[in-house]
Amino acid sequence: MVGRATEFRRVVERWKGALEGRGGCVLISGEPGSGKTRLLRELERRLRRDRSLVLTSKCHPVEGEQPLAPFLEMIAEAHAVPGLGGTLPSSLEILAALLPEIAQQFRGAIRPRQPPIPPEAVAGALLDAFAAIAEEVPLAILAEDLHWASPVTIAFAHRLARRADRAALLLILSANDVARTVEKTRSLRDLAASHAVDAIGLKPLDADDVAQLLNTIARVPDEPSGSALAARVVQHTAGVPLYVLELLKALHDGGHLAVQEGTWVIPESLTDDNVLLSVARSGPNLLRHRLQALDQDARTLLAALAVWGREATAQDMAQITLLSEPAVSEGLDALARRRLLAHPSERTYAVPHHEIGDVLLAEVSPVLVTLLCRNAATLAESRAHAAPLPEWFVAARHAAGAGDAARAALDALRGAAAIEVRSGLQATREETRAWLDTLPEAQRPDVEARLRAVVDGSTSAASWLQTAVA
Prior knowledge:
Number of strands: 9
Number of helices: 22
Shape: globular
Distance between the termini: 58 Å
Oligomer: single chain
Structural class: alpha/beta
């Protein structure tokens, strides 16, 4: 936890208060690559050492517009926790209507509420459920990448934060400083400014932090050379942890920096400000430099993961890329060897950082991106029959990325129709509008024009869908 020890201890102190019934909320923010995810993983490991319940969820760019999705996911995960039985029956009825796990756990005791169920009622049921769990066992809720979430979800996090100080509950959130839309950026800033939230902004690493990082990897032969190298690394990376590590990797892989018998070998050229570093001089270019070493199949797989925007299995990757299973396996191995692959679970893979995916997608052929988006839309559509929300909107986003506005609008209409059944007309208009606002400017107008009747409320999604299909 180089450069983040103070922030780590600050959150742990808040957790100790929660264990005594004085909970709260912590919002960890910073620019992309500032180390938010790493800090949350270390905090999760620390919190799990205590006799408590730790629930985690991560927001994704392709599915984040589903209101309350990360919190519903956590309640589904906690369906068998004894404390959940203390939730009001009326709240359990609402949650059972949305989550099969809750319906199964409490079958015979409650009857799922008949839809439509307004988002406000769902939010109230979630508040009741989390409070009931915290009455039974200290509860930590970790919601990662809140900048991808819907404004409704961010507003709910604020409501939960205001109640946490009276319970054995600590809410830990992470988010970029700036979200994808103005509305969400404003919501995040309101959250950070709340008296109920302990806002922790992650600052760039300084030269002392980088010198400490060097010492955690191998012994620095002498203080002057270590300090000089650290200062140059900060100068070239602005102290962003992601780029600090990328620069050190590039120097090492290029043979400019080495470790021998547990000690750094630091040539004078790396400590002399008058000698230019023989590697890329900006963060994105450092990523680009490492990506250039990949073969075509590995690049295609990484691009597919970036397009998909969430965890994927090897079978998913084969469907999106149209590569054979052996080629997928070899490509994933190549990405893992180059430390360009995250492995969230035993069967799933992901891009290790959104910045890596963004840089790669800007480099590969637009024809390839279109193909990957089209195949990703097909995969999401195949899943949507079992899970209409959020998969229809995920499919619509990928179809828009492939340049197929008609397909995107039709998939979005199917998603809107599912919202209409679940939550009513008002929620349908609001959630469809929120989804449209997340589309890139180049893709939005054509899709929006086809959905205007639903967004402005002149017709229901179900009726418009029947017309569109006909």
